Amino acid sequence: MPQVGKSGKKICCSCPETKKNRDECVVNFGESSCSVQIEAHKACLRAEGFNVK
After folding, report:
1. In terms of pTM, does the model score above 0.90?
2. Which of 17, 22, 42, 53 has the fewest beta carbons closer than 10 A?
3. Domains of the chain (ranges plus CATH)?
């Protein structure tokens, strides 16, 4: 896994919009209700070059 993504950011700082949406959904509705937001964040991270399962 690369240390930084295509944008030059570490995984923790990549995709802030999808991360925020995912985190807010999980806090408010629980992980089982947020698969769309979770998958959107994973897709963004993959597009940055990270190997996310």
Report:
1. no
2. 53
3. 1-53 (1.10.287)
